[in-house]
Design a protein that fits this description.
four-stranded antiparallel beta sheet; 51% helix; three-stranded antiparallel beta sheet
Length: 350
């Protein structure tokens, strides 16, 4: 068998062979760079308001706080960013969310103001009906549990709040949620304090139920830090309460006007009484002084004169005074006391 002839040296060192060698060299460096990029593809910087969950073949192996994360490239390991434990998340629970059966007052049910399967309506311990519109603020305490249950955190937390609100409202009155009887709670600082304490107790109840889930191995990895609850009335009941409040306000305005008018009349009566009393005192003092001035001469004669000369002085004073009195009369008839004549004088009816 004849040996194959080797290509000549000129063909091995020709331009085509050199181009192929250069191409393979460039491809080799590109492959090396791509391999290096793939190896460091999961080296990431975690921001200060986040944390990282590292998964290896779909299993959570560790939780990395803020900083540099070193992980094997995909598909070996996967890095997902989550909110940090200090970051506050919110969940809105709207009153009237149609997700299950609820208790509705007959007036609103007949009027069709609330869907028949609304869960935002709660029955209070005193037989009232109230709607709760809440915003729950929570934070992540267990990133592993939160990541595994992330798709169910919002629905589960909503159901926990609704169940907590049902049991919580059953042990409270409507005045613990909102002002429905202002004539009883107006000016009472304990009423507002009870409403503030109600929000804290509701947060405690939701966290207790979360702890029960965690103890059973089904924890959500969250903790509720705050609940902003707004209590509302059903539309039909709200109209009735507004009418009662309007009537109460009108009655209070009427009472205030009546009290003002009564006080004005009382002040006017007191002023008139004071004026009458002052005039009576002044007239009484004037009459007393006049009487004293008229009797001063007689009293002076009686107290200061000699008893022997007193009758003559009294007789002289009498003649002086009687002359002025008789001078005012039109006619004067005198009758002798010792005589036998009798005089009949006209007089008024007794």
């Amino acid at each position: 068998m004849t040996e194959a002839a080797s290509p000549p040296a000129a063909e091995q060192d020709g331009p085509v062979a050199q181009s192929i060698q250069i191409g393979f060299g460039v491809l080799r460096w590109i492959t090396i760079l791509l391999a290096l990029g793939w190896l460091v593809s999961n080296v990431r910087q975690v921001p200060a308001d986040a944390q990282a969950v590292v998964l290896r073949f779909g299993e959570v192996i560790r939780v990395q706080p803020a900083g540099l994360v070193l992980a094997w490239p995909r598909p070996i390991e996967q890095v997902d960013l989550l909110p940090s434990p200090q970051r506050q998340l919110e969940l809105k629970v709207v009153a009237g969310t149609a997700t299950g059966p609820a208790i509705i007052d007959p007036a609103s049910k007949m009027a069709g103001d609330i869907p028949p399967n609304s869960t935002g309506v709660y029955l209070t311990g005193d037989g009232g009906v109230v709607l709760l519109d809440a915003t729950l603020t929570y934070r992540i305490t267990d990133a592993r549990a939160w990541y595994l249950a992330s798709a169910h955190v919002a629905p589960a937390l909503r159901r926990l709040f609704l169940s907590s609100a049902v049991s919580f409202a059953a042990g409270r009155t409507m005045d613990d949620f909102m002002v429905v009887r202002p004539e009883q709670t107006a000016g009472d600082p304990r009423a507002e304090a009870k409403r503030q304490a109600m929000r804290g107790a509701l947060v405690t109840e939701v966290n207790r139920r979360l702890a029960v889930l965690s103890a059973a191995g089904d924890g959500l990895g969250i903790e509720v830090t705050r609940a902003d609850v707004t209590a509302l009335l059903p539309p039909a009941a709200k109209f009735a309460f507004d009418a009662v409040l309007d009537a109460t306000q009108m009655a209070e305005q009427g009472l205030a006007a009546a009290r003002t008018d009564a006080e004005r009349q009382k002040q006017a009566a007191n002023q008139e009484r004071d004026r009458i009393l002052q005039e009576a005192r002044a007239n009484g003092d004037e009459r007393v002084n006049s009487a004293k001035s008229h009797s001063a001469a007689a009293l002076a004669i009686e107290q200061g004169m000699d008893p022997a000369s007193r009758p003559s002085l009294v007789d002289r004073l009498y003649r002086e005074r009687i002359a002025a009195i008789l001078h005012r009369a039109g006619t004067v008839n005198t009758v002798d006391l010792s005589g036998g004549n009798r005089v009949i004088l006209p007089g008024g009816q007794p």
